[in-house]
Amino acid sequence: MKQQKGFIFDLDGVIVDTAKFHFLAWRKLGENFNFQLTEAQNEQLKGVSRVDSLNKILNWAGVEISQEEFDRFAWSKNENYLTYVAQMTPEDILPGVKSTIEKLKSGSYPIALGSASKNAPGILQKVGLFDQFDVIIDGNSVSKAKPDPEVFLQAANQLGVAPKDCIVFEDAHAGITAANSAGMTSIALGDPGILSHADYVFNTFTEITIDFLTQLQSK
Fold first, then answer.
1. Which fold, 6-16+93-218?
2. What tens digit of pLDDT does each residue of 4-52 get?
3. Catalytic: which of 12, 138, 165, 171?
4. List 10, 138, 165, 171, catalytic entry
5. Averaged pLDDT, 118-143
6. pTM score, two decimals?
């Protein structure tokens, strides 16, 4: 008998397009160092913690700052980001996400959120999806950021599903790496050129059919 599958969703760029808000907030922060973050560099920040992202930006800018300044900049970036998040509504849910969740819920599959964002619960509340998740693991729950698999392993543990029976939806290189390291099936949403190490790649959830989800259950 096949074991029950569990499904784990990343948040930014998977459920909602908060990735654009992070980009705007990081770019504004970079202005303090006369540094303009590029879209290519921003790809390297997707799925990465706030602390690690700021360290990357400082390295790219060739800037060293004190720990006090570091903490202040990290805080100000988040405050700027939250001004965008505060305006979110259910209209911000990406295409195909709600129908995919509905398909999984109708099949009684357990689902979890596995996100580096410490703002994840609030965002899910804003867009009306909070109650759809059986488990929420966010940046407040883990000590290691992606590409470390901790966030996904915690989600699997709380779902009561073995890692090998978990399917992860991700849009970031670091997130796919984390899912693969956890021994889970990785499904990428985005550019196959960047996310070619995923087990499956789709442009959006609208391409993911119930037949495909059923096939995953049978494997």
1. Rossmann fold (3.40.50)
2. 899 999 998 899 988 789 899 999 999 999 999 999 999 888 878 899 9
3. 12
4. 10
5. 94
6. 0.83
The answer to whether 199 is a known catalytic residue is no
pLDDT per residue as tens digits for the range 139-175: 899 999 899 999 999 999 999 999 999 999 999 999 9
Q: Does residue 95 contact residue 204 with C-beta atoms inside 8 Å? A: yes
Rounded-to-integer distance, Cα 3 and Cα 158, Å? 16
What residues does 112 pair with on adjacent strands?
A: 8, 135
Long-range (24+ apart) CB contacts under 8 A made by 90-94 are: 90/127, 90/128, 92/16, 92/17, 92/126, 92/127, 93/15, 93/16, 93/127, 93/129, 94/14, 94/15, 94/16, 94/17, 94/204, 94/205
Map out the domains of the chain as residue ranges: 6-16+93-218, 19-85
12 part of the active site: yes
DSSP state of 168: E
**CATH topology classification for 19-85:** DNA polymerase; domain 1 (1.10.150)
Phi and psi of 93, rounded to 5°?
-65, 135
* C-alpha distances out from residue 2 to 19, 106, 156, 215, 216, Å: 36, 18, 17, 12, 11
* Three-state DSSP class for residue 202: strand
Residue 138 corresponds to which tokens in the numbers above? 């966010």
